[in-house]
Write a structure and sequence with these properties.
It is built from 10 helices and 8 strands. It is an alpha/beta fold. The radius of gyration is 16 Å and the shape is globular. Strands 1-2-3-4-5-6-7-8 form an 8-stranded parallel barrel, surrounded by 7 helices.
């Protein structure tokens, strides 16, 4: 376990459910990203994830990651959509497998190609099982996901349990960037009952009330990205963080 993961686990133990901000390199202005991440860090986000569903150039990715690193103290964690999503300038990388993809490339092919770069760059790899719920937006389309219906939480649970049995320490339930509906709290609750690993939920989370409901259902980490991209305002992040702090820590 590396420093970034240890930091997250320590914050979970002491603060309860956490918020992370997702930055898509293709949807931000490099001239303003530094100020923006400073604001979301001040609002209480506990890490900055960097990644998108389509293909940003490695040069653009490196520039965004370097700028973010220069402006925040919280960990910067890569959220790669492919091998092109790896940068040497981050603190860590979610080393993840899209568990319900129909394409072996997203199960293990991209990981095999990316692993030498992770080692070369000395990136901290945090193992994660990634599960698309609903249509999953661009991530579901590009990842060729056999998406899980909102009303079949038991399917999400068995994928999550498989991830845990494979040794993955985090599971991410993803509704997709800008999803009309987030992952239902009822699904989060069923998955939480099935696994002991840390549970991340993202996609379609637009306010603190929804974030708190997901945390009460068992989510350890709430991820939002569109709120920052569209509003350029940390107020919504602050609202979510304040609501999460009202949720009892998981023991």
């Amino acid at each position: 376990m590396g420093k970034a993961e240890a930091y997250l686990l320590d914050r979970l133990r002491n603060d309860g459910p956490l918020h992370m901000t997702l930055i898509d390199p293709e949807k931000v202005d490099l001239s303003t990203i530094g100020s923006l991440v400073q604001q979301v860090e001040k609002a209480g986000t506990m890490a900055i994830m960097v990644g998108g569903s389509t293909m940003a150039s490695s040069r653009d990715l490196d520039a965004v990651v370097k700028t973010i690193k220069e402006n925040v103290r919280v960990p910067v964690i890569l959220f790669p959509n492919n091998v092109s999503g790896i940068s040497p300038y981050a603190d860590a990388i979610w080393f993840m497998s899209l568990l319900n993809s129909n394409d072996p490339y997203f199960l293990m092919g991209a990981q095999a190609l990316g692993a030498p770069l992770v080692k070369k760059y000395n990136l901290e790899a945090i193992p994660m099982g990634y599960i698309i719920v609903g249509a999953g937006g661009a991530a579901g389309l590009i990842g060729r996901a056999n998406w899980i219906p909102y009303d079949r939480p038991e399917i999400a649970a068995i994928f999550a349990l498989a991830a845990q049995c494979l040794g993955m320490r985090f599971v991410y339930l993803e509704a997709g960037s800008g999803a009309k509906e987030p992952v239902p709290p009822s699904m989060v609750s069923v998955v939480r009952d099935a696994v002991d690993c840390n549970l991340i939920v993202g996609g379609g989370i637009k306010n603190g009330k929804v974030a708190m409901e997901l945390a009460k259902a068992g989510a350890d980490i709430i991820v939002t990205g569109t709120l920052v991209e569209e509003n350029q305002d940390p107020a919504k992040i602050r609202e979510i963080v304040d609501r999460l702090r009202q949720v009892k820590r998981r023991t």
